[in-house]
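Progress against Task 2.4 (sequence-to-structure conversion) is shown through the following example record, which the project officer requested during the mid-term review.
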Amino acid sequence: MLLNLLMLYYAISIFYIIVALLFRRKGILVQALILVACPFIGLFLVVSMLREKNSPVGRLPDWLLRREKYVDDAIFPINNEDEENIIPFEDALILNDNKIKRKMLLDILKGDFLLNIDALEKALQNEDSETSHYAATAIQSIKRTLLKKMYEMEELLNENSNDQYALETYRDVLKNYIRIEFLDIKTRQKYMNYYSQTLEKLIKNGSSNTIDNFIEKIHVDIELNHFNHALDTTKVLLKHFPTNENAYFASLQVCFQMKNKKEFDQIVKKLKESKTVLSPNKLIQLRFWIQGVY
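Structure tokens generated for the chain above:
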């Protein structure tokens, strides 16, 4: 009996859907989904939607109306020109054909290279030889541009070692140059030392003492295995930012790397006394570090 009723329900539903499609009723895709997904109840829902005169698809919530638009759009073929404007270049390297990869890469090359270093590095490793060639050419161009700017700032700093504009520009140029991972170890370490020294000057000058300068210097010194320099920076950092969770966690990271339990305990104590509210991710990180230290 129930099976017969179900068959009758679906027969009526299919008939209604076919008729609605022929007359191009608005909202039919949503109604069809309701009819198929909600046997019997769906019929009453669709009827109530049809009775609503103020809205073409009845009293549906906003999220469901958005869902209808998504389903309607999904049945049309994707336009490659539109796709290029939506899909990140990193994804396009995997998903698209070589012609689209090359066009997207050329579009990147027309803009600011420095904003797309990560994408260029991935393109360099792409199996399409032309794509990787474009990327290699762009990266060489970036390196030349950065080196030229670096020399300009070095000249300014030779004239005035505390020139704020030159220091900040030199810092940014060094950071971008170091990001290009195709430097040999010795060259990379040399520029990282320059970067650390520049950050230290900015911190000592005090006029550009953002927390980013401190944290960047700590991370660079850790990578260089200059743990004592990093530890000294953490002490200044906590004086400047006594209630900032990032300041405490940059400091704790140094102690954790050094396995310095005494200093780690002191910073945890300061953190408790400061009554700084920690985010959930930081709490998880702190528990991990505590387990590692003890």
